Every structure is written in C-alpha cells, then in structure tokens.
Amino acid sequence: MNTNSLSWQTPPIDLSLPPNEVHIWRVNLETSPAVLQRCETVLSPSERTRAQRYVFERDRRRWTVSRATLRLLLSRYLSTESARLEFDLNAFGKPSLAPPYKEMNVEFNLSHSAEMALYAFTRDRLVGVDVEYMRADLDFDGMARHSFSLQEQNILRNFAGEEKRQAFFRGWTCKEAYAKALGKGFSQAFDQFSVALLPSQPFALLQQSEDERELTRWSFVGLDVGVGYAGALVVEGGDCEVKCWQYLV
Questions:
Q1: Which of 101, 128, 185, 215 has the CA that lies 20 to 30 A from 88?
Q2: CB 117 within 8 A of CB 24
Q3: Tally of domains in the chain
Q4: In this structure, are 107 and 168 located in the same domain?
C-alpha cells in the first residue's frame, strides 16, 4: 500500500481510476444556497423526496449535497450523465451501481459527519470509508463496552482526556470503515474484531474472531480529514496507491 500522497490535492481534469489506485475525495458540505440549488437538480425524484423527509434544514442540506456529489463523481469516472445512474442495495443497505454501469466494476463508499463528507472509489476491490466529527461530550468507555472488543476496552481505559478521545475515534472510524467494506454496516458485530488504537501502531486489523484470514486481506489507512475530525479507509488488498482529492464545489 502506497500512502505517500495522502495530502489533499486538486484533481486532474482527465480523471481515471486504474485498478491499482484508490481515490479518496474530501467534500465540505457547508455550501451556498446557489450550490445547494444546483445539487437538488442532480438528485433523482426519489432522492429529492427522501431529502424532504429531514425535519431540519441543516440535515436536509447535508444529505442533498453529499448525495448529489456522489452522483457527480461517479459520472466523471463512468463518463456518463449523473441522471443515468441508478443504484442497487444489498441486504444490509449498502449501495452499488445498477446495470448497465455495474459491469464497469467501480466500487464506492460514502460517509459524512457534521460538515464533512468522504468518498472512496476503487475498481475490482471492496472498500469502506468513515469520517466522524470528534465530539468531546461522549461517554467513551460506556460506548466502548457496547462496540469495542475486550482488548480494545482495556487499552482505552488507560487513556484520559484528549488522548482517550483520539483513541476512541481512531478505533471507531476503523471499525465502521471495515464493516462498510464488508458490506454489513452495523449488522457486523463490532466487538468481534480488534483494530490498532495506540498512536504508535500502524492502522491495522489486529484480531478477527470469525476468520483469521481477514488480517491479511485488508489494508487500513488513517486519513487526516481536518481539525476536529477523524477518518479511516479500509480497502481490500495491499497492492494499490491511495490518492486524495479535494472536491471543489
């Protein structure tokens, strides 16, 4: 896994997605009314209906911008109009491209939290990404008792203050990105596997009680998303290069 270019760069005009690359996009969801209006026109009728179900304008804006951006980015990779794209959902709700574009083997994943969204795109390999706004007003040990393995809980208890917050969100983003890469989301038992929490450790899957082969199947990468946020990428295999692009609205 080549992670030498993990700073956020301006994307090239001619965008391609070779099989040996993983592309991460960072998007600021805080946009102007004019941009929001343009994003609304990109959505399908069913997506616009779903957006209107949000009670608060802030949540409606964030969902609209994040979903429209997914369509726009996919249309660039697939060299098609965003309106032509349709999506299928697996049994756990993870979206994928529907035919005819399904045959192009572009895998993607999306995560958003507060005013930040992350997108991951690959070809012929599974991928998951997660971003979290690192709130400080949480019972980290209490949440860990429900979602972390015993090994992770013991490590987390040794931290306090800001170090505990950093360790918790490092673990949480890795665990959620892994569950999303598997295609299971929150149906995956988070306490049945362990990830690296210590700042001195590389991002990695350390233990998987269901299948030890998982330890070498995946690559884990920490993402420097911005102040106040934690991010992680999980991608199948290790023979690839990660490139980070800044989306310009």
A1: 215
A2: no
A3: 2
A4: no
Interstrand relation of 21-28 and 241-246 (parallel, antiparallel or unpaired)? parallel
On whether both 29 and 123 belong to a single domain, the answer is yes
Show the domain range for 214: 136-235
Per-residue pLDDT of the chain (249 residues; tens, 9 = 90+): 666 557 999 999 889 999 999 999 999 999 999 999 999 999 999 999 999 999 999 999 999 999 999 999 999 999 999 999 999 999 998 999 999 999 999 999 999 999 999 999 999 999 999 999 999 999 999 999 999 999 999 999 999 999 999 999 999 999 999 999 999 988 889 999 999 999 999 999 999 987 888 999 999 999 999 999 999 999 999 889 999 999 986
Residue 229's CATH number: 3.90.470.20
Contacts of 213 (CB under 8 A, 6+ apart): none
Rounded CA separation 114/29 (Å) = 8
Q: Residues 75, 144: one domain?
A: no
